[in-house]
Amino acid sequence: MGGDSTLITTRRSLHAVGELVLAGPQHAQTGEISLRALPGGFGTTHTPDLRVDGTDVVGPEATVGITGLTPAALGRALGVEARGLADLYPDGSGVGLDDVLEVDPDAAAVVAAAFADGDAALRALAPDQTPILWPEHFDIGISVGEVNYGVSAGDTYLAVPYAYVGPWSPPAEDDYWNAPFGRAVPVSDIDDLAAFFAEGRDRAG
After folding, report:
1. Per residue, what are the HEC states of 119-140?
2. N or C: which end of the chain has fewer CB within 10 A?
3. 92 and 67 in one domain?
4. Can you tell which superkingdom this protein's organism belongs to (predicted)?
5. Would you call 87 helix, strand, or coil by DSSP?
6. Do 100 and 183 lie in a common domain?
7. Residue 89, C-beta contacts closer than 8 angstroms, at least 6 positions apart
């Protein structure tokens, strides 16, 4: 895969696509920003019907490769207007509408697998909940009993995809609670994501 730098570049580009090309136009049409995990990637939950599949974005009229395009150009090729969500939250991908995107297929598969595995584990933890992939931090998660559970594609805290348990009132850091917001462990280090979330639930009380 070319090391973590390739994963970081790919994750950042996919985050930008999710935020600017999928969630932005969806919010303009419906007021909703929620995304969802799908086989091979992720997609919108409302209109327009757009999804990332590997290194492509698939829309009703076209399938367009991401690499080499900007979010603005990608949106035009799909028949939507890419737009940011800075009016809703201060963070985000940090990618501009005219920044060139680059997605490595192996790295994209790592991100897609993390979201798919996270979605399945979260549904096992709380069958009555629907996991949401949020475009702000590019993580899929749920909240149960004032505890956040989820899988992030990676960020400034951990560069690789990781699972987290985050009580709304974070406990003091110790051997288990290893992050300022709770617990975070790379997905690659976890044998059973559902068990990871269940243990976090039990420890959070």
Report:
1. HHHHHHHCCCCCCEEECCCCEE
2. C
3. yes
4. Bacteria
5. coil
6. no
7. 136
Does 34 share its domain with 123? Answer: no
Q: What is the pTM of this model?
A: 0.96
pLDDT, average across residues 104-117: 98
Residue 72 shares a structural domain with residue 165: no
Q: How many domains are contained in the chain? A: 2
Report CA-CA distances (Å) from 48 to 14, 22, 32, 121, 172.
Answer: 18, 8, 11, 27, 43
Q: How far is 100 from 98, CA to CA, in rounded Å? A: 6
Q: How many CA atoms lie within 13 Å of 103's alpha carbon, on the beta-carbon side?
A: 28
**pLDDT score of 169:** 96
Judgement on whether residues 45 and 90 belong to the same structural domain of the protein: yes
Task: Summarize the confidence of residues 11-35 as an average pLDDT.
Answer: 98
Peptide bond into 48 cis (omega under 30): yes
Give the per-residue pLDDT at 3: 53
What is the average pLDDT score of the chain?
96
Kindly give the pairing relationship between strand 41-44 and strand 56-58: unpaired
Clarify whether residues 10 and 100 are in a common domain.
Answer: yes
Query: Where in the sequence is the domain holding 68, given as residue range(s)?
Result: 4-105
The verdict on 194 and 136 lying in the same domain is yes
Rounded Cα distance between 175 and 156, Å, is 22
- Least confident range of 2-6, 19-23, 96-100: 2-6
